[in-house]
Amino acid sequence: MSKKITLVEDDKDAATMLTKMLSNAGYTVNSLNEGTSLVEKDTTIPDMFILDNFMPTIHGVALCKYLKLQERTKAVPVIIISANQQLKNKATEAGATLFLGKPFHSSDLLRVVEEVFSANGK
């Protein structure tokens, strides 16, 4: 069974590219263009969240903090991606498993996704 990843990315082109890349690597990807649906709806819990930070409704760091406070999602690994390298410490403080700075190569994302799954025994 393939691992499930919820990707939250408001840039449509980036979301399409990342979804295709992760799907081609064998992951099942649920792509959302904003994070409020994770807060407002009772969604299926994935094996990993990948969150862009700068989104119009809720930033990735705040969403990560929320997810880490919820009993259902607190153990799910979170990767935060952002062009703002200064967010690395805030991402870590929010409970993110890993921060990946943009721009990155697709091989970098696939490598860190696999590293996080391996480290978490998934």
Which key terms come to mind for this protein?
alpha/beta, 122 residues, 5-stranded parallel beta sheet, globular, 5 strands, 5 helices, single chain, Rossmann fold
Map the helices and strands:
Blueprint lengths: L3 E5 L3 H13 L3 E5 L3 H5 L7 E5 L7 H10 L8 E5 L5 H6 L4 E4 L4 H14 L3
Parallel strand pairs: 1-2, 1-3, 3-4, 4-5
Which residues form runs of ≥5 with pLDDT under 50?
none
Using the coordinates above, name the CATH class. Alpha Beta
What is the structural class?
alpha/beta
End-to-end distance? 11 Å
CATH superfamily: Response regulator
CATH topology (fold) name: Rossmann fold
Overall radius of gyration: 13 Å
Give the topology string: H per helix, E per strand.
Answer: EHEHEHEHEH
Tell me the strand order in the biggest sheet: 2-1-3-4-5
Number of strands: 5
For the sheet with most strands, the description reads:
5 strands, parallel
Task: Explain this structure.
- This protein is an alpha/beta fold and 122 residues long.
- It has a single domain (4-117), classed as 3-Layer(aba) Sandwich (Rossmann fold).
- It has five helices and five strands; from the N terminus they run βαβαβαβαβα.
- The protein has helices spanning 12-24, 36-40, 60-69, 88-93, 106-119; strands at residues 4-8, 28-32, 48-52, 78-82, 98-101.
- A five-stranded parallel sheet has the order 2-1-3-4-5, sandwiched between helices.
- It is globular and about 30 Å long.
- The chain starts with a strand and ends with a helix.
- The mean pLDDT is 91.
